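PROTEIN DESIGN WORKSHEET
SECTION A - STRUCTURE
LENGTH: 351
TOKENS:
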């Protein structure tokens, strides 16, 4: 059922209908939190996050801990995945190192000026069952006991099961029991129109937004979210763009879009391919291919015009699975991005 919320932001109607994402908890559906994907009926995709490592101590003020996650389901987890790490007073970081190969993704991060808040966005289709992690170096100032908690979160709009999204480590005690984040709620939006080049400041107010990201036209808007507000800057775009707040407890689709006016930003350069690591494979498909080149980020791979069974692209590398074909012979492999379609390289199907 749609949830009615009152939006008090500039230019918004007094009462609007907001459709929220379906949220299922382990309490209502015991199987929802299972890590198994046995049986063909398990269709949902989810990501589970944990943290562990060498945290600072009274004797050693420096530490390195890992925030790890695993995609669980039958298909790739798609769309931007957002991570946040909050540190207690006196504990700071200078950033994270993300560990995952091959490099068929983009990983961007920002650290707050005080060093206590880190946000990162991972873009790329993530294989189910793959463990990935980022290592975070932290330093505790002063002397004596360290108090407070480290909280790490993950959010993805295609993950409809809100378990496993919040991990908390309490100094002096250790890991805390898992918690379920709140579903975001928005009651005000400061701006709903701006230039196609982007750069418009937008503040969404409400609650349940800690650890969230804002998508405008499906693109992450740079900025940060507290429990009561998300302050972001619009990316470039055109036309009427859907707005969503993707939180640890689910996704809220804001009913009023952001309307871009004027010319959009210039398109990126067209992708350029330099080669394949595997030049041939069986007509039955299923061969794992690495495509190298430039300007490949967020691209899609096709074999003879047929989309790859799966693909994920970073700036200079795509992984792809060759689809099945009717007959042996050479086909053209291309990568398509917002900047256009690459010149082809040749892949040969063999009987």
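SECTION B - SEQUENCE
RESIDUE ASSIGNMENT:
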């Amino acid at each position: 059922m749609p949830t009615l919320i009152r939006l008090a932001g500039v230019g918004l109607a007094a009462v609007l209908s907001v459709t929220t994402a379906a949220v299922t908890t382990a309490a209502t559906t015991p199987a929802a939190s299972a890590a198994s994907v046995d049986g063909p009926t398990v269709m949902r995709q989810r990501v589970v996050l944990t943290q562990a490592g060498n945290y600072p101590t009274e004797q050693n003020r420096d530490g390195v801990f890992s925030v790890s996650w695993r995609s669980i389901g039958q298909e790739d987890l798609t769309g931007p995945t957002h991570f946040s790490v909050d540190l207690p007073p006196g504990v700071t970081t200078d950033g994270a190192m993300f560990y995952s190969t091959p490099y068929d993704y983009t990983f961007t991060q920002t650290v707050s000026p005080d060093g206590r808040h880190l946000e990162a966005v991972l873009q790329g289709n993530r294989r189910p069952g793959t463990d990935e992690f980022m290592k975070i170096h932290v330093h505790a100032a002063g002397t004596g006991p360290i108090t407070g908690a480290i909280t790490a979160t993950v959010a993805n709009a295609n993950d409809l099961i809100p378990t496993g999204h919040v991990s908390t480590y309490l100094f002096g005690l250790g890991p805390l029991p898992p918690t379920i984040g709140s579903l975001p709620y928005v009651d005000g939006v400061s701006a709903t129109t701006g230039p196609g080049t982007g750069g418009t400041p937008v503040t969404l107010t409400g609650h349940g937004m800690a650890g969230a990201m804002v998508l405008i036209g499906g693109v992450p808007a740079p900025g940060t979210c507290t429990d009561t507000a998300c302050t972001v800057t619009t990316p470039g775009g055109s036309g009427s763009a859907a707005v969503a707040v993707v939180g640890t407890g689910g996704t809220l689709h804001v009913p009023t879009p952001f309307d871009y006016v004027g010319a959009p930003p210039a398109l990126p350069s067209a992708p350029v391919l330099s080669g394949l690591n595997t030049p041939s494979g069986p007509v039955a498909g299923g061969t794992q291919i690495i495509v190298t080149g430039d300007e490949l980020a967020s691209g899609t791979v096709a074999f003879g015009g047929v989309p790859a069974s799966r693909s994920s692209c970073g700036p200079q590398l795509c992984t792809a699975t060759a689809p099945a074909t009717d007959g042996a012979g050479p086909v053209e492999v291309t990568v398509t991005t917002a900047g256009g379609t690459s010149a082809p390289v040749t892949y040969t199907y063999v009987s």
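SECTION C - NOTES
Residues 3-21+187-261 form a domain with the Immunoglobulin-like fold (CATH 2.60.40.10).
The radius of gyration is 22 Å.
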